[in-house]
Amino acid sequence: MNYMPVDGKPDRMHVGARVLDLTNWIEINSDYENDLAQKRELLANKHDEVFVSLPLGDGGSREVLDLLSEHLPRVFPDCWAGEVSIDKNLHPLEAASLLVQEDLCLMSQVGKDWILSAASLCFPSRWDVRDKIGKNLLGIHGPVPHYEETIGVATQNIFDKLTVERPIWRVNWTVMDSGELHQPVAVRNPDAMTVTRDNIEQTLYFRRERQTLRKLPNSGDILFTIRTYTEVFSDVVARYPEFRKNLGSTLEGVTPQMADYKGWAKILNEIQAWSNG
Ligand code: HEM
């Protein structure tokens, strides 16, 4: 992903939705084989931690699998010559998730609410999909400080108004002390972050999530994809030299609640010193 969300403006929570050209729905890069091997291992050995489903999402899940089976050979003919091979014994959303690097979350409408009805989530950013299944948007985002009063209504509106013809994408980002894609809740231990301005570039990772939302024509469900990219700071700075200065000014907008939530409380000062250095 060549999109840099840290631009030096003070951080504020926003939806930041852009129209998605469906040709770019899925991204495939040189990590494909590694990422898929990791997914296969997690789905085999920790299935219940990374895959959840309700019967409500069965129709939408089959639709996702069909859409991907059509999309991938058409858009990536070099990777898929001919038909996509699918394990028919798996839940269709699980089979779909084993075709792409993205994590897949299916949202189904029940009354006014959009409910998480199925998910294959191998690369969580320190949350547990088992806590979220069956919840609506507000419930899913319960632990996120300021969510409800800042973007809760706008996010609900995006779901209500999304059309089949006009999918969207957005980016979330964070800073972590690990470059592992699979970050279950259990690894959250902010006190363990021991960074100084001198080792920051080798110790901290910039984690970006490219997220897409696509309404499915038959079921009316919405597929939320999350593609996670993680890079050690030294690589980020090499590609985006302005990142160093911009991160400090962007983090000036972070509230104490958000710093706690992200696990940054103990490292913000060091990041600022590095950024200003
Ligand atoms: C337009 C749609 C959405 C917006 C604007 C949005 C926004 C956000 C924001 C701002 C955060 C805080 C993350 C951070 O800064 O690190 C967040 C976290 C999160 N979002 Fe969303 N989100 C959207 C859709 C969804 C959907 C469809 C799901 C379904 C699974 C989801 C699941 C989560 C989860 C699980 C977290 C972490 C919550 C936790 O810590 O327990 N989001 N989201």
How would you describe what is shown here?
- The protein has a 7-stranded antiparallel beta sheet.
- The protein contains 12 helices and 7 strands.
- It is α+β, with helices and mostly antiparallel strands and 277 residues long.
- The two termini are 28 Å apart.
- The protein has one domain (18-276).
- Bound molecules: protoporphyrin IX containing FE.
- Protoporphyrin IX containing FE (HEM) binds at residues 13, 15, 105, 107, 116, 127, 132, 140-141, 143-144, 151, 155, 158, 172, 174, 224.
- Protoporphyrin IX containing FE binds at residues 13, 15, 105, 107, 116, 127, 132, 140-141, 143-144, 151, 155, 158, 172, 174, 224.
In short:
The chain has helices spanning 32-45, 47-50, 58-75, 92-97, 137-140, 147-150, 152-161, 200-203, 233-239, 243-251, 256-262, 268-276; strands at residues 18-19, 51-53, 103-110, 113-120, 168-176, 205-215, 222-232. It has 277 residues and is of the alpha+beta class. Strands 1-5-6-7-3-4-2 form a seven-stranded antiparallel β-sheet.
